[in-house]
Design a protein that fits this description.
Layout lengths: L14 H21 L4 E2 L1 H4 L1 E8 L5 H10 L6 E4 L7 E7 L5 H17 L7 E2 L5 H10 L4 H17 L18 H10 E2 L3 E9 L1 H29 L2 H24 L3 E2 L1 H31 L5 H33 L5 H35 L5 H21 L1
Parallel strand pairs: 1-8, 5-6
Antiparallel strand pairs: 2-4, 2-7, 3-4
Helix pairs in contact: 1-9, 5-6, 8-9, 8-10, 9-10, 9-12, 10-11, 10-12, 11-12
């Protein structure tokens, strides 16, 4: 399938406009980062507590926020995640130090219990009780140690199978090991809470700092490795152009996160590393076609050869990038809050990465080569001849072998 047959767009004619647009986006992002004193890191980088909740009915975020504020936790972030019909809420609380992590977790859970337990008094909440406490209560009801443990396991398994929530007394019927005595005890001494704590994540500040450092190193190592590979595979100027274009993509993507006040988490770093590989792959396709055309069109100017190469690969670029963009856009629109940062990074990154392969990386090679030739450097024709001689030598060695 070919979208652009015999395309003949003069991309290099607009190279300074492209570079001006890139500078504008980059500067806007950097200014935003400086104004906000750096990116807005997620809790997995800065340290804190994350509590994942599921409610029976659609919860009021304002009610949760007011309850937490009344207990001195007004700095908590509260947001919905997942499909709206699932009634799931994520509460994030920054912590000033490692010792405060458990205190913060206990504070959030105690606040929720006080706000949503109603007039249940000391009754056990079957949607939040742990296995050990549940087994202990059942033993107090007259069940033996083994029978109480088995029934507790069965009840918690049913709760897990229903996304963490038991809806009412009917959930107790048919459980393995459920006796009339145990059922009567639970109905009298327990209730079915309106919410369930599905998961709690705690990240210490030292761990968050180390994760942030490792994420930076991973990105820099990826860029350095690609520079070495492309410089070896082509020429060093191609490697520099590819790395500059990829760095440009990362800076603009992070700038968009700052402009839209979005958090950078571990999943976002994974998306940025994916973007690095995707962008460089797209750039290499264009560079490889330039190298092939240099051998076939030795009398033409490098700018003309580069334009021809971009046009020849344009259909492939649009098809590959377009299909990938549709996929990540669907993930952004329908993937829920938890994947929002990851998918947003890929949506922006694929657009910017495809643009930079055409409008940034290739013009850098052309501008540098033209400047180098005006300074008396080796022309690209001489470079092509050297490459042809090298290939002939390799062929000769293979024939002798």
């Amino acid at each position: 399938m070919e979208l652009f047959r015999d395309a003949n767009f003069n991309f290099l004619k607009w190279k300074w406009g492209f570079i001006a647009l890139s500078l504008l986006l980059s500067v806007a992002g950097v200014v935003s980062l400086l104004a906000k004193r750096g990116p807005r890191y997620g809790i997995d980088f800065r340290g804190g507590t994350l509590v994942y909740l599921k409610f029976q009915q659609r919860p009021s975020l304002d009610r949760i926020r007011a309850a937490l504020s009344a207990r001195g936790m007004g700095q908590s972030t509260i947001q919905r995640y997942g499909p709206e019909r699932d009634n799931e809420v994520l509460i994030g609380l920054d912590q000033p130090g490692s010792q405060a992590l458990d205190v913060g977790k206990a504070g959030i859970i105690e606040t929720l219990r006080a706000e949503f337990a109603g007039n249940q008094g000391s009754k056990m909440d079957l949607n939040n009780v742990g296995r050990e406490e549940l087994a202990s209560r059942l033993m107090a009801a007259g069940l033996g140690d083994q029978a109480a443990g088995s029934l507790a396991d069965a009840l918690i398994a049913r709760r897990s199978a229903q996304s963490g929530l038991l809806n009412g007394p009917g959930e107790l019927r048919g459980l393995p090991g459920m006796t009339p005595q145990a059922e009567q005890y639970l109905l009298a001494n327990a209730h079915f809470g309106s919410y369930a704590v599905r998961n709690v994540e705690i990240v210490g500040p030292k761990v968050g700092t180390e994760l942030r450092r490792q994420a930076l190193y991973a990105t820099l190592y990826a860029l350095a490795g690609m520079l070495i590979y492309i410089a070896f595979r082509f020429e060093w100027v191609y490697g520099v152009a590819a790395v500059v274009a990829t760095f440009h993509d990362v800076i603009i993507t992070i700038g968009f996160f700052s402009l839209f006040d979005l958090e950078i988490s571990l999943t976002v770093v994974a998306a940025l590393l994916t973007l690095v590989g995707y962008s460089v792959n797209d750039t290499i396709v264009v560079f490889d076609r330039i190298r092939e055309n240099l051998k076939l069109m030795r009398r033409d100017k490098l700018a003309e050869i580069t334009n021809r190469s971009i046009n020849q690969t344009l259909s492939r670029t649009i098809l590959t990038s377009g299909l990938t963009f549709i996929t990540v856009l669907s993930l952004f629109l329908f993937g829920g809050e938890v994947l929002r940062g990851f998918s947003f990074a890929l949506v922006v990154g694929i657009l910017v990465g495809t643009y930079s392969s055409i409008a940034i990386a290739s013009p850098i090679v052309v501008v540098w080569q033209e400047w180098y030739e005006t300074r008396g450097g080796r022309s690209r024709v001489a470079a092509v001849e050297k490459e042809r001689t090298r290939e002939k030598s390799r062929v000769g060695v293979r024939v002798k072998a």
